[in-house]
Amino acid sequence: MMAAKVAGAVNLDELLDASTLEAFVLFSSNAGVWGSGGQAVYAAANAFLDALAVRCRSAGLPATSVAWGMWAGQGMASVEGVGQELSRRGVRAMDPERAVAAMADAVGRGETFVAIAAVDWERFVTGFASARPRPLISDLPEVRTALQNREQDLVDEDESSGLLKRLSGLSRVRQEEELVELVRAQAAAVLGHGSAQDVPAERAFKELGFDSLTAVELRNGLAAATGVRLPATMAFDHPTATAIARFLQSELVGSDDPLTLMRSAIDQLETGLALLESDEEARSEITKRLHILLPRSGSGGSSRGREAGPDAGEYQDVEDATIDELFEVLDNELGNS
Ligand SMILES: NC(=O)c1ccc[n+]([C@@H]2O[C@H](COP(=O)([O-])OP(=O)(O)OC[C@H]3O[C@@H](n4cnc5c(N)ncnc54)[C@H](OP(=O)(O)O)[C@@H]3O)[C@@H](O)[C@H]2O)c1
Question: pTM score > 0.90 for this model?
Answer without folding.
Answer: no
